[in-house]
Amino acid sequence: MDELTDFLQYLKVERRDSIHTVEAYQNDMSQFILFLQNNFGLQEPSAATHQQIRTWINQLYENGLSARSIKRKISALKTFYKFLYTEKRIRVNPMHKITSPRQSKRLPSFVSEPQMLTLLDSTATQMKNFEEIRDDTVLETFYALGIRLSELIQLHFGDVDMYRMHIKVLGKRNKERIIPFAIAYKERLLFYLSKREELFGTIHRDDFLFVTDKGEQLYPMLVYRRMHQYLETVSVQQKSPHVLRHTFATHLLNEGADINAIKELLGHANLSATQVYTHTSIAHLKKIYKQSHPRE
Is 293 a catalytic residue? Predict the structure, then answer.
């Protein structure tokens, strides 16, 4: 489909969306296009009406899809038809009459402070091969910086300022932010870099910070699998790298960090995206209150 191909190119080049976002949009749009072909004989999604779109959404409900998944698919359609409208490929945007389903907010899953410290301590031994040292460093990078998976694999050696102890991160919408780090992380990173130089030679500014055992850029599935293995050793429901980002934010908030500062560190565009962590913090305070108050 030319329209879909152009849309995916727009996501990659102009919006600079992560590979995960592009793949998710591609899957959602492919399912929708197949539905239009099978049920209405339409070859191009630009010809779809809002009634036909509603029919697809109703079918998703009937198939038992969760409100969260349906909301994501609607978001993909809204982005797609907004693209077509902006490009003047359609005169009317059929998504203007479509609303997303409401869903209950799910609190972010995170690792408790004692478990996180124990997990980091377990990676302290230096008697390891390059891959193990790299994975240990990646684990601590997620927890020390609170960055996304897509941001981690795009880090370059030149983004790290060891003297000022901060790192430059390129986030969503090509937005750049600076994140400071502590001496403990600096030491871990220096150790990893020394082992990398032993294996691959001098590191240049434009080189990717984290590489495979062949010296190539890390890919998302490798990082996901490695972090999943670490998180299997602690008590947490979800086991993706994003849990470590949630853990970073939750621990900062529990220790009294200003929520606006956390927003900047996470690279959130709006404070509302950060405020979900206040619910976790309140639950933490309630637990302390219940354990400590004389009348409890």
Answer: no
